[in-house]
Amino acid sequence: MSDLQERLDFANQAALDVQPFILEYFQNPDLEVIRKGDDSPVTVADKGAEERIRDAIAAKFPDDGILGEEFDEVPGSNSYRWVLDPIDGTKPFVRGVPLFGTLIGLERDGKCVLGVSRFPGLNEVVYGAEGLGAWWIRGDGSKRRAKVSEISSPDEALLCTANPRRWTDRSMKEAFELFNTDYRLTRGWADCYGHMLVATGRAEVMIDPVMSLWDAAALLPIVKEAGGSFVTWAGEERADGGDGISVNAALKEDVLRRLG
């Protein structure tokens, strides 16, 4: 078994193991929501889930580094660094909407090579790693290949995006309106859920105006292995560019042209 396959199997199990803990707090009326310095929400579920994943990594791969949203970075002594977002989509999570995910990404020599995106509220997972393909499992079903769609015409395409206010903040309101006009459907299925809709062929484009590394590190290798692209608004394949696009191969150039 390769190092990457071993870590992919581990990450899948780690995300599954933390799912019951997260669901204890999902749709719990007593859940306390705390506002961080940037006004984004955090809960005991976010912090507890990340702690559990960090502990599992430290026990299995003590030389690997760890970077996560909720706690300080732990430097590693080899070429691997895990990048964690225990609940990507805390805002829908605290509102009782199941479109949030646990993201476990892995860098090797600074390159994003592995990703797991598990949706506890849906009992669904999409995962992939460089050279190992991208895969999708719903519930207790068998795994199937995750593949982007082949739709090439905007008037047949489904485009997802985050809060439209973020387009206005970037002075991109006109571009947003053009997408709304030319693409068949525009929906606000945001965060990792929108990106994984692209990876599984259920949507063609997901455009996110604001992303942190832990939001994107797991997504890039999944979308790429599914036959699509995860790039910044400038067209660079990277997870630390501050924004992100998941798109099928057929519409990539169209999307980048409209944002350019």
Automatic annotation (TrEMBL):
* Keyword check for Cell membrane: no
- Per the record, the domain of life is Bacteria
Show the Pfam families listed in the entry: Inositol_P
EC number from the UniProt entry: 3.1.3.15
Entry cofactors? Mg(2+)
- Which terms are listed as keywords in the entry? Amino-acid biosynthesis, Histidine biosynthesis, Hydrolase, Magnesium, Metal-binding
Family, according to the entry, reads as follows:
Belongs to the inositol monophosphatase superfamily.
Query: Known PANTHER family for this protein?
Result: 3'(2'),5'-BISPHOSPHATE NUCLEOTIDASE, PHOSPHATASE
Q: Quote the protein name from its UniProt record.
A: Histidinol-phosphatase
Organism annotation: Alienimonas chondri
